Amino acid sequence: MSMDQADYKIKIDSLGKEFESPRKNVIAIENVSLEIKQGEFVCIVGPSGCGKTTLLRILGGFEEKSTGTVSIIHKDSEKPLKSTVFQEDSIFPWMTVRKNIAYGLKIRKLPRKEIKKITDHYIEKIGLAKFAESYPHQLSGGMKQRVSIARAFAIDPEILLMDEPFSNLDEQNRFKLQKELLRIWEETNKTVVFITHSIDEAIFLSDRVFVMSSHPGTISASFLVDIPRPRTIEKVRQSERFQQLFGEIWGLLKSEVM
Ligand SMILES: Nc1ncnc2c1ncn2[C@@H]1O[C@H](COP(=O)(O)OP(=O)(O)OP(=O)(O)O)[C@@H](O)[C@H]1O
């Protein structure tokens, strides 16, 4: 199939990962198959240890798979295919907010003017104009995660991989960042794969939620989140569809978590 004909952005087929260890090998994920469309926002939820991070690390190219196939359509080879945002803030402590966001663009050797334009745009988007020349140690946890997100978007990847980026934040900061993330995503048409422990967060953010189960770590179900956008946390939580999805997803996870 030619790239233009493919109706997926990411296609995973019978993916498996076994970690070898001297005592006992661990099967982290087994027989994972899924397709993600261009521009889709998907969340993956599942109990601790079910293999979410392993799956994301394979997608990100940080880990080798053991079995199966992963196909990702890279449309514009001039631009990076993917960028990852991790749970802990991973910005450079010795660089200012501005330099952190500009870093990936400098690596790509974009013209200086262009770098400034893009960097200013994202500094504004994440509400850190007053902190552009601050260093990470002068920022709160939420502000640092904002910088990570801005940095990931600034390099303009086709796919964003996010591994529990908000799990270390308090609830109010999490709401704020979720909203900002959706706002930026809505204007960029990027494909996002987002891992979270939180069913609320998964439903609020995504077009589709994949639920993973453990032993073996595999996809046990997927749910279409047909709640209209733009969304607000208040409206989503009050909607009947939210309650219904929450009940169904929790129903699946409950037995494992308990
Ligand atoms: N480098 C490694 N070597 C050996 N085993 C590993 C390695 N990385 C992960 N595992 C094992 O693979 C399984 C899946 O781990 P993974 O971190 O992907 O789960 P997770 O769903 O992301 O967990 P959590 O939600 O707690 O972050 C676990 O049993 C874990 O111990």
From TrEMBL:
The keyword Transport applies. Pfam families: ABC_tran (PF00005). This is ABC transporter-like protein. The keyword ATP-binding applies. GO terms for molecular function: ATP binding; ATP hydrolysis activity. Residues 10-239 form the ABC transporter domain. The lineage of its organism: Bacteria, Bacillati, Bacillota, Bacilli, Bacillales. Gene3D superfamilies: P-loop containing nucleotide triphosphate hydrolases. It comes from Neobacillus massiliamazoniensis. Keywords: ATP-binding, Nucleotide-binding, Translocase, Transport. Transmembrane segments: none annotated. PROSITE patterns: ABC_TRANSPORTER_1, ABC_TRANSPORTER_2.
